[in-house]
C-alpha cells in the first residue's frame, strides 16, 4: 500500500482554492491538475508499506498528533518547484507556522522509530495544485507565471486532524 500522512483541507476551503486558481487551469490545461476534493498538505510520504503495518502506523500517528493542539493554517500565494521556467510542480503556499513545524518534526521522529526514512530536505509546506507531466513551451509557462502573480488569495482554517492516507497510482494520476 502506498501511504502518506496529510492534513486534509475542509471542503469549503478546497472549493475556494479551486475558484481562486481557475484562471491557472484555463491558462495551462495540459498540466496534471489536482482534483479539488484531493487538495491537502502532505506531512510525510511513507511510500509502499505492508498492509500489516497500517495499525502500527495509525497508532504512531494518533500518539503523535494527540500531543499537539489544533493549529491555525494560513494558505495563499502561488509558486513552482523549482521555478516557473523549469517547473515540475505548481503549488500554493502554507505559512511556516511554528506549531506546524513542530508537528512535522515530531512525526518525523515517531516514524523514524518505526523504520520509515527521514525526509532529507527541509520541510516546505505547500499544497500541490498541478504536476507538469510533459515539457511545456516557455511562453506557456511565462503566461502561467503572470497569471499566478495576479492571484490574490489567502485563507485561514483550523486544523483538527492529521490523516493516514492511501494513494493508488493509475494512468490518470493518483487516487
Please describe what this structure looks like.
- By secondary structure, this protein is of the alpha+beta class.
- It has 5 helices and 8 strands.
- It has helices at 11-20, 22-27, 54-65, 98-112, 138-150, and strands at residues 2-8, 32-33, 40-48, 71-81, 89-94, 126-131, 154-159, 163-166.
- A 5-stranded antiparallel beta sheet has the order 2-6-5-4-7. A 3-stranded antiparallel beta sheet has the order 3-1-8, with helices on one face.
- 21% of the residues are buried.
Please describe the structure with a list of short key phrases separated by commas or semicolons.
single chain; 175 residues; alpha+beta; five-stranded antiparallel β-sheet; three-stranded antiparallel β-sheet; 5 helices; 32% helix
Low-confidence stretches: none
Helix- and strand-based class? Answer: alpha+beta
- The largest beta-sheet arranges its strands as 2-6-5-4-7
- Spatial extent as radius of gyration: 17 Å
| Helical segment count | 5
**Share of helical residues:** 25-40%
Mean of residue pLDDT values = 91
Topology as H/E string? EHHEEHEEHEHEE
Largest sheet: 5 strands, antiparallel
* Spatial shape: globular
Query: How much β-strand is present in the residues?
Result: 25-35%
